[in-house]
Amino acid sequence: CYRSAEGRIPLRLEELVPQYLEHVPKDPFNGKALVYRAQGTNWVLYSVGPDQVDDGGKPAGPTRSVVFPGVKPPKTKGDLFFDSPW
Q1: What is the pLDDT of residue 9?
Q2: What Å distances lie between residue 3 and 15, 18, 20, 28, 82, CA to CA?
């Protein structure tokens, strides 16, 4: 909707408030704003994920360590993201 109205993608999520969003969404893992990066005519939006480290939008995946019965597995590394469909 923003792209149709403005002819471009937003440079920051704050540009979507309040017309398109009530507020900038918070990352459920660290309580800060989700990471948004405009990339030309596209964008990337992601959470830092369970390890709470910004890996630059690298998709989260399992760590490569041995897991023993009864031992809680380590947190996954990487980010949980949604990128633009165009």
Answers
A1: 94
A2: 11, 15, 11, 27, 17
